[in-house]
Amino acid sequence: MSEPVIIGVDLGATNIEAAAVRGGDILASKKKKTRAREGVDVVIERIGTTVRKVMDKMDADAADFEALCIGAPGAVDIESGVVQSAPNLNWTNVALGDLLEEELGMPILVDNDVNVGVLGEHVYGAGKGALDMVGIFVGTGIGGGLVLNGTPHYGWRGVAGEVGHVVVKPNGRQCGCGRYGCVEAYASKTAMEAIIREEMEKGRSTQVFDIMEEKGKAKLTSSVIEASLEAGDLLMEEAIQNAQYYLGLLTANLVNVLDPEVVVFGGGVVERLGQDFIDPIGQTARQHYLQREGAEKIRLVPAALGDDAGPVGAAVIARRRLQSAI
Predict the structure, then answer these.
(1) What is the pLDDT of residues 159-179, one digit of tens each?
(2) Which of 15, 107, 195, 270 could disulfide-link to 67, CB 3.0 to 4.6 Å?
(3) What is the pTM of this model?
(4) In the chain, where does the domain assigned CATH 3.30.420.40 lie?
(5) How far is CA 262 from CA 138, 185, 228, 234, 296, in A?
């Protein structure tokens, strides 16, 4: 029996990516800007338009697909399809599943975007073949997900995997979540930009903001980080080293608690800098592993699927839920 074709959607604060997926293969895809500032109705309409473009590429309609699964940022109730809180979209208690079902007329499944991406990497990407895997995604914030015994681990309230809010420095920098000392307050792009600005205000020089202006960027991006490092900017180098140190502490904590076979690092920063970004993280992590025997076999690797991890992981989730419902 051939694999069903699923529509997988990755909903981000900046972009919407939709794809028709069979197994781990992308058959057709389309990307659009989210335009989240224009409100929920606009975003729903744009998701619908993006999905229909994929259907057009496939010369198909909604009845030709088993289901649609969408990964949304923030806290998601996977049973009801409600996005309970998505700060980057400015959403609170949005019934995404019901709204998309009304828009598209097909079964809709909803999950957290990082959980979806991590599962895609586990089944078809850098974590393929591992039973237990941790995903750490370095971007505007620090996202994460857990795959334990081959299945996503949600926790009893559905909020497991918030690795960005592991405290790595008690009473440290304030995080966007309001608490202090979270790894996100040191290792995210948002944190790196804030730290560089603080150092500049103390009188230190940097090219980072000139490079941002040259590139037309309003905030620190992965391309700006790469260009700043290539230019030998000392503050950028310090910010990256700082991030790597705290990500190393985070990795050690997760390894000590969960003992995974592989830790997969993703997100824009990792895509730009690759294994060179990960190696110093591993050096710090290994210094803090509790059980050293066999620790060299724990793989710390970059994600392999890039933007496709979201749609592919969404399709995996859809297939598994559909099969469990039979």
Answers:
(1) 888 999 999 999 999 998 889
(2) 107
(3) 0.90
(4) 5-118+307-325, 130-303
(5) 17, 24, 30, 32, 11
